[in-house]
Amino acid sequence: MDERRPRRPALLGKVALETFGGAPDPAALAEAAHATASLLVESGRATSDEAAKARLVALVDEVGLDTIADLWAQRPPRSLPGALWRLYVLREWVQRDAVAAALDFATGRAAAPVPHVIAGVAEPPTPEGLRALLDAVLHGVFSGDLAVALERAGAFCRVVVAGRVTRADDVEPADPEAANALTRSSSSLLQTAEDLEAAAVLWRGQNLV
After folding, report:
1. In contact, 95 and 105? CB cutoff 8 Å
2. Crossing angle of helices 146-171/127-138, nearest 10°?
């Protein structure tokens, strides 16, 4: 593991664990958010011990990924927990609405050469590929370069944005309200793509904390 990386916190720690119950103060919540984010990301990189990784997956399942992700939701978008929150939201959407995700992705792929927007991302992941990638990251078993995962998620967002913009143009004559909704969601998702891409740059510069 790169010694220049911020020191990985101990396994949550007393203050962090206490944030899972009661009404902790904002400082404790922030500490827990950064501690859990760092733990999940560094664990996959720090060990090739499959048994240790399995124990971490079990811990995440026991505490609840939803509970952990709630800690990340209020952190800045271009921080480690903020980036993981955006990955979590993407994963939840792809799992919850697989049909819409596939439609947006397929439409976007046909509409524009989006994969080439981000240097180094030759091909964005499909919805199924994205879900598998984000499952690994969010369960602490991803051993690859987090910057690449963030860029691939950003590329996926850009493909979906292209798909939604195309669909908005198609439906506007018959349903202006639906077109407006697609346009608004596209704008929000484009911001997510930009935040993920910026987080990738920060990670490579040892500055995503």
Report:
1. no
2. 140
Cβ neighbors of 172 (< 8 A, separation 6 or more) are 179
Mean pLDDT of the chain: 82
Express each pLDDT in 133-180 by its tens digit: 999 998 888 888 999 999 999 999 999 999 999 999 999 999 999 999
Nearest Cα to 91, choosing from 82, 99, 101, 80?
101
How many C-beta neighbours within 10 Å does residue 49 have?
Answer: 10
Which pTM value belongs to this model?
0.81
Q: Of 27, 11, 4, whose CA–CA distance to 75 is shortest?
A: 27
**Alpha-carbon separation of residue 193 from 116, 199, 200 (angstroms):** 14, 10, 11
Q: How many angstroms from the chain centroid is the CA of residue 103? A: 20
Q: What CA–CA distance (Å, rounded) separates 80 from 75?
A: 9
Closest CA to 75 of 85, 87, 60, 65: 85
Residue boundaries of the structural domains of the chain? 89-204
Q: Which residues of 81-111 are buried (b: 16+ CB within 10 A; e: fewer)?
A: bbbbbbbbebbebbeeeeeebebbbebbbeb
